[in-house]
Amino acid sequence: MAPTLRPRRLRQSAPMRRLVAETRIHPAQLVLPMFVAEGLSEPRPISSMPGQVQHTLDSAAREVERAIAAGVGGVMLFGVPEHKDAEGSGATDPDGILNAATRFLAERFGDATVVQTDLCLDEFTDHGHCGVLAADGAVDNDATLERYADMAVAQAAAGSQILGLSGMMDGQVERVREALDAAGHQQTAILAYSAKYASALYGPFREAVDSSLQGDRKTYQQDPANRREGLREALLDLAEGADIVMVKPASLYLDVLADVAAASDVPVWAYQVSGEYAMVEAAAANGWIDRDRLIAESLTSIVRAGADVVLTYWAIEQAEWLGAMR
Ligand code: PBG
C-alpha cells in the first residue's frame, strides 16, 4: 500500500521549505553582548571566544555602529574594571567603566538602538561573587539587594534603557523596581535573568571579564537538574514586576525556555552564552563542524523553543547574513 499522507511534499524544494518554515529569525530579535574594559588603548582579543574582544570606548562605538547597520535589536554592555574591591564599588561609581561606557554609547546611539546593561557585581568584586559577602563568607542576599538598588539607579542615570538583572538574588526585581521608581526612572525596563543556571558554559565569559571568582555560584544560580524551579523563578520575577524574563544558558535549557514561554505574559528572552559560542567556534576551527549551519540551527532552535529575543555573540554576523538572504 502506497502512503497517502506524505509530509515530504512540503520539503521537496528550497522555496517550498522556505514557504512553510514555522520559525523565522529577524535581525531585530538579536541582541549583542559586549565587553568594555577600563584602561585599554587597543581592543584586546578574548582567546576563549575567537572573534570577540574586550573593547575600548572607541572600538565599542564602532561595534555598536556595525550592529545598528546590520539591524541588530540592541546591545548588552558588560564592564571590565581595572580595580576591584569587596563591595564592587566600581559598579555604583558614576565614572566606573560600565556606567561611563553606558553614558558614552547611550548619548551617541540611544535613539538608534536599545543600550542595555548587565546588573551584577561579579565583574566588580575582588572575590568575584555576584553579591557582597557576609562575615562567614556566604553571599549575603539582602545586603546585595541594596547594592543592586544603587547600581540600578547609577545605570539608569547613565542612560541604560534595560537593566539585565543577572545576580540571582531573591527579591532583586522588586527591590530594583522600587529604587528606580523612587529615583524617577519609571521608564527604565527590567530584564530578569530569571532562570539562570550554574553552568559550565560560562567558562569563556570568566576570561572575558577577567573574573576573580574562586569556587562557584551554586548557592544562588540554579541547579541544572531542576526544570520546575526554572518556571518558579520566572513566575516570581513576573510577580515582582519584571518587564522581560530570560532563560540562560539557552541551548541546554530549551525545556525550561519552552515552559517559561508558555507561562509568561511578558517577552521571553534567552542568552546563548560564551560556552555555546566557544564550542561551535572551536569545533569549526578544527574543521569538525559546519560552522555557519550550526549557528543558524542553534538560533532557530532557541527561537523555536519560545525565545522572542536571543542574546548572542553572533548577533552582527547573523543579522548581516539574514539581511543578505532577503
Ligand atoms: C553575571 C553574568 C555572567 C554571564 C552573564 N552575566 C557570568 C556568570 O554568571 O558567571 C555569562 C554570559 C556568558 O557566559 O556568555 N554578570
Coarse morphology: globular
CATH fold label: TIM Barrel
Q: What's the CATH superfamily, by name?
A: Aldolase class I
Ligands in the model, by name, code or SMILES, are: ligand PBG
Order of the strands making up the biggest sheet = 1-4-5-6-7-8-9-10
Helix content: 25-40%
Query: What is the highest CATH level, the class?
Result: Alpha Beta
What would you call the structural class?
Answer: alpha/beta
CATH architecture: Alpha-Beta Barrel
Domains, number: 1
The main β sheet shows up as: 8 strands, parallel, barrel
Write a structural description.
By secondary structure, this protein is α/β, with parallel strands linked by helices. It has a single domain, classed as TIM Barrel (Alpha-Beta Barrel), CATH 3.20.20.70. It is 40% helix and 15% strand. It contains eleven helices and ten strands. The protein has helices at residues 14-20, 57-70, 97-109, 141-158, 172-182, 203-208, 228-239, 254-263, 274-285, 291-305, 315-325; strands at residues 30-37, 44-45, 53-55, 74-80, 114-119, 162-165, 189-196, 244-248, 268-271, 309-311. The protein is globular and about 75 Å long. The model has no long low-confidence stretch (mean pLDDT 97). Residues 118, 120, 122, 166, 202, 205, 217, 273-274 line the site of ligand PBG.
